[in-house]
Amino acid sequence: MNEGFPTRLRRLREARRMSRRTLSELCGLSKDMISIYERGEADPSTSTVCLLADYFETTTDYLLGRTEKF
């Protein structure tokens, strides 16, 4: 079974040794949004998924758990 968005986001963020707050600020999100996404309490907008994929230099499909190809 593929990992979902919350797990992929957390792993990518942790690989860069970045805090949730820092990532939120870099993406122009409110300070707690990354934490909310990582807990699976809310789904990001399409534009936010694209922004995060661009930031982590990956595809939206990988970030959303639709493919294993980074």
UniProtKB/TrEMBL annotation:
One family name in Pfam for this protein: HTH_31
Domain HTH cro/C1-type stretches: 9-63
The keyword DNA-binding appears for this protein: yes
UniProt entry keywords in alphabetical sequence: DNA-binding
Highest taxon above the source species: Bacteria
Record-given protein name: Helix-turn-helix transcriptional regulator
UniProt entry tagged with the keyword DNA-binding: yes
CDD domains from the UniProt entry: HTH_XRE
